[in-house]
Amino acid sequence: MVHLFRSSRERLSNRDLHRFTGDSLLDSVATVICGAECLARKEFFESYEVAKRILRRHRGGPVVDLAGGHGLVGFFVALMDRGTDSICVVDKRIPKSAARLREALSVKWPYVTEKWQFQEGKVQDAVITGADRVLGIHACGGLTDEVLRLAGEHRARVAVLPCCHSHATLDSGGLEGWMPMEVAIDSTRALALRAANYRVFTTTISEDITPMNRMLLGTPVEWVRPGKGGA
Ligand SMILES: C[S@@+](CC[C@H](N)C(=O)[O-])C[C@H]1O[C@@H](n2cnc3c(N)ncnc32)[C@H](O)[C@@H]1O
Q1: Ligand 1 mutation target, pool 12, 53, 64, 91, most atoms within 8 A of CB
Q2: What pLDDT, in 10s, does the model give residues 171-208?
Q3: CA 182 to ligand 1 center in whole angstroms
Q4: Residue 74 Cα, ligand 1 centroid: separation in angstroms?
Q5: How does pLDDT run across 33-52, given as a tens digit for each residue?
Q6: Global pTM?
Q7: Amino acid 208: pLDDT
Q8: 3-state helix, strand, coil in the chain (%, to 5)
Q9: Average pLDDT over residues 11-25
């Protein structure tokens, strides 16, 4: 792949095809998405990196992508993990172009897109079970905390990439004297997840895609006990 400005909000289009001439999975998906001309470059690279990091910790089971937008993270998860039973994207306003994206990807990967469902509604409308992998990727501000709460209520595995940290309304745990406010807020979230009997994992995606690049993942401790398999 030819180097390109990965944080661009410009739509991938046929003009970008020359950038994806390799034989990697990323190049194959990019080629299809360029043809669909409906997705920002940043969202494409971000979704792929987020999906890879989820799969380092959470494999197998359904995906419930809350505030999921186009839901491309779930597509990548299912593409790289055949143990993904279903992908349910819940968003209060599904982007119009989501259908176009799904249709384009269904030509080459029908076995993935047939698992991929969209539900227009609030995150609280999602049906979540303890088998799910619950996602909240750029669930703005306090919506990230709602995603963590909903996952916790059902003892589901969870992965969030927080953004839009409101200094006025979000809990920084009093840590901002030692670290930037956004980091204090996310650290407080990590500690709260641990206090809820989750095993916590922290990681980042590449900063050239987004400066809001901290990922927080949690696995209920009962999942990592002997007899229930690894996380
Ligand atoms: C910044 S976008 C992130 C979309 C996607 N997860 C991504 O990373 O590209 C935030 C999304 O949250 C959705 N949203 C905001 N409040 C919501 C709510 N209460 N319930 C469901 N979706 C919501 C918006 O419609 C929007 O699509």
Answers
A1: 91
A2: 999 999 999 999 999 999 999 999 999 999 999 999 99
A3: 19
A4: 14
A5: 999 999 999 999 999 999 99
A6: 0.95
A7: 93
A8: 40, 20, 40
A9: 95
Nearest CA to ligand 1 atom 24: 67
* Pocket, ligand 1, Cβ cutoff 6 A: 43, 67-69, 91-93, 122-123, 137-138, 140, 143
Ligand 1 centroid, distance to 124 Cα (angstroms): 13
Q: Which domains does the chain have, with CATH numbers?
A: 47-224 (3.40.50.150)
Position 1 pLDDT exceeds 80 = no
Distances in Å between the alpha carbon of 90 and those of 14, 68, 136, 172, 211?
A: 29, 6, 10, 28, 25
Tokens of 11: 């739509």
